[in-house]
Amino acid sequence: MSHPTQPLAGRLAVVTGASRGIGRAAALALAGAGAHIVAVARTQGGLEELDDAIRGVGGSATLVPLDLTDFDAIDRLGAGIHERWKRLDILVGNAGILGNLTPIGHVTPKTWAQVMDINVTANYRLIRSFDPLLRMSDAGRAIFVTSGAAQKCRAYWGPYSVSKAALDALVRTYAAETATTNVRAMLLNPGPLRTAMRKAAMPGEDETTLKTPDDLAPHFVRLASPEFSDSGKIYDFPSDRVLTPQMAS
Q1: Which residues carry out catalysis?
Q2: pLDDT tens digits, residue range 37-96?
Q3: CATH node for 12-243
Q4: For 243, which DSSP code?
Q5: Where in the chain are the domains?
Q6: Under 8 Å CB-to-CB from 66, ≥6 apart: which residues?
C-alpha cells in the first residue's frame, strides 16, 4: 500500500522539460509524493536549481542535461535507466515549443521541423525507448502535455496545432496498444497557465488572471498513481474532467 502523504514512494519518474514551467512544477510535485525524478532539460543550471528545490521537499533526482532533438541520446537514456533500475514507472512528456505565430505559408521549413521534432518526434522516441521499461513496471503511467490548439486550429498557430494533433494521435495509439498491459497513457490539457510560452503567445494578457503550473501539478501525481486507471483520454485541467477525445473541444 502506498503511504497517504507519499503515494508515489519508491517509484521512478522521467520528466522532460523539467527545468521550468509545467515540467518543473510536475517534477517537484512528483518528488514531493515520493518519486525519484529523472529530470531531463537542456540547461544544466536550470536542472541544478530544480535539484535544490527537490531536495527542499525531501525528494531526490537524477539530472540529465539532454536536447530532445538528439534522438540517439533518448535511446541511451532508456538503456541507462534499464541498466540502473530495470523499469520505469512514470513518464511525463512535457517539453514542447510554440514556434512562431505566422501564416502557414510564412512558416520556415526550419521552424516547422523544430516544432515537429520537439513536440511529436521526441515523444515518439521517448515511447520507443521507454515502452519496454514502462511494461516492466507494475503500473506504468505515461502522461503527455497537449493543448486545446490540437482541435481549435486558430489562424497562425499552424505548426503548434498540427504538432499537438499529431501528439494526441500518437498517445491514443499507444494507449490502444497497451490496453491489455499495466501501462496507461494519458493526455493532459493544462489550458491557459502563467508560463513563458503563454506569455510569448499572448503578450498583452493579464497574467494575474491565469492559474499557475503549481495549481496544475497535483494532477500529475494523480494521473501517475497506480490507482489511476483511465487510458487514451484527455485530462482537461480547465474543466477538471477526464474527456474522451471525441468530447474534447
Answers
A1: 160
A2: 999 999 999 999 999 999 999 999 999 999 999 999 999 999 999 999 999 999 999 999
A3: 3.40.50.720
A4: E
A5: 12-243
A6: 40, 41, 42, 73, 74, 77
